[in-house]
Amino acid sequence: MAENKGYMQRYAMLFGTYMGVFWISKFILFPIGLSVPFLLFLFMGLTLCVPFMGYYYARMYRNHVCGGGISFLHAWIFTVFMYIFAALLAAVAHYIYFRFIDHGYVLNTCETMVDTLAQSNMPGMDSYIATYQEALETARLLSPIDITLQMISSNVFWGSILAFPTALFVMRRKKDDAPAE
What we know:
Blueprint: H1 2-5, H2 8-33, H3 37-48, H4 50-64, H5 72-101, H6 105-119, H7 126-140, H8 144-170
Helix pairs in contact: 2-3, 2-4, 2-5, 4-5, 4-8, 5-8, 6-7
InterPro entries: DUF4199
Protein name: DUF4199 domain-containing protein
Organism: Bacteroides muris (ex Afrizal et al. 2022)
C-alpha cells in the first residue's frame, strides 16, 4: 500500500479538479436561480449529488490505484484532499464572480425577498425578518475575498464531514490481506 499512497495526492488533485469543475458549473445556476426558481431547485439537486460523486471517485481510487483495498484512514484522507482541491478550484471562480460580475446582485435579490416577506405581514415573522435583515447588513460589509474565504472554509468543513461516511463505505480489505480461515 505504501506505493499507492504516493499516488494519493495526484489522484486527489485529479478527482478534485473534476469535482471543482462540477461545483463551478452548478454555482453558475445559483445567482440565476435567485430569479428563476427552477434553476435554484436544480442547483440544490446538483448539490445533493456531491457526496455521491465523492463516493464514486473514492471507489475508483480504491479499485484502480489501491488494488481493490483501502483502509478507513487512507480513504478518509484521500476524500478530504479531494474536497480541498475541489474547494480551491471553486474558490477561484467564486472570487472572480464576486469581484467582477456580481456587483451586489445576490445581496440585493435576497434583500428584495426579505422585503417581500416583510410586506406579507405574516404573524410571528417579525423576529425572523429582523434576523435576516441584520445578516444582510453584515454580509454587505464583506469583501469578495472575505466571501471567497468563507465559502472555501465552508466547503472544506463540509467535505471533511462528508469524508467520514464516504470512507466507511469505500474501505475494504484486499482479497490477499484477508485473514485465513
